[in-house]
Amino acid sequence: MENSHISALSAKHAGLDARIKAESSRPMPDAILVASLKKQKLRLKEEMAAQH
């Protein structure tokens, strides 16, 4: 159960990373969106660290 939860968090983390890269590569990236995605990514990383 716990391992699958960490796997799900890791998948979400990777998805957010991909969205950040995609948004950042646009000609006029939305800085507010990028900042929001980075905060979400950090929260997931902290939650994964707490699970270990």
TrEMBL record:
Gene3D superfamilies from the UniProt entry: 6.10.280.50
Domain of life of the source: Bacteria
Name of the molecule in the record: YdcH family protein
Native species: Sphingobium rhizovicinum
